[in-house]
């Protein structure tokens, strides 16, 4: 079984392509009648979609949850212009960047990537969630989880998880829109590690800090 943590070049490029698309989901769609963005949160929350049955694009019924209750990850720091985040302790920063908008760290069974796209529009979170779900292919059991509040400014952010149909690896993704930047944070580990350390991504999220 090939694990995502091997960080083979084609796989890393594939994940970067997916994350770039996720960032575009946040930055490319402008609300027709946007309300002034609250501060410090840089995204608005739209109304939940209605229907007879829930879907991954609907707002979760639970209230947005913070990432408190777990110790912040203390591995290598990844940072670009607006976000800083730490990988788990056994991860190592990857040499070289595919672009100036991407940075990553990896282990033998995991990968953490941060991507930032400048010029993001203020898009309602529910609209971004719907666009994100439409953009994902090859995912099994894709779920939109309750929104999370990240960093010292508690920026409300989208959160998703799914399983890769091909490898069985577990994926988590968080999308935030802050200070005109669409930030995408993606975390993937082998199925076995996810089962043994289900709170690993929560520790990564608990380490997020905003740099501006």
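Sequence proposed for the structure above (212 residues):
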């Amino acid at each position: 079984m090939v694990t995502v943590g091997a960080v083979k070049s084609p796989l890393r490029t594939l994940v970067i392509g997916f994350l770039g698309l996720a960032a575009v989901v946040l930055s490319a769609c402008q609300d027709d009648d946007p309300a002034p963005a609250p501060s410090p949160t840089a995204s608005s929350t739209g109304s939940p979609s209605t229907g007879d049955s829930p879907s991954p694009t609907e707002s979760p019924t639970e209230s947005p949850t913070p990432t408190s209750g777990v110790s912040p990850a203390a591995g290598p720091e990844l940072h670009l212009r607006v976000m800083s985040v730490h990988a788990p302790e056994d991860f190592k920063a990857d040499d070289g960047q595919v672009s100036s908008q991407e940075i990553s760290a990896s282990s033998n069974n995991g990968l953490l990537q941060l991507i930032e796209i400048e010029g993001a529009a203020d898009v309602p979170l529910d609209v971004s969630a719907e666009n994100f779900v439409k953009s994902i292919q090859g995912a099994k059991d894709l779920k939109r989880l309750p929104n999370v509040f990240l960093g010292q400014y508690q920026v409300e952010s989208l959160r998703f998880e799914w399983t890769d149909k091909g490898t069985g690896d577990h994926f988590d993704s968080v999308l935030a829109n802050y200070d005109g930047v669409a930030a995408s944070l993606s975390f993937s580990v082998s199925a076995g590690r996810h089962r043994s350390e289900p709170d690993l991504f929560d520790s990564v999220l608990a380490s997020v800090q905003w740099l501006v």
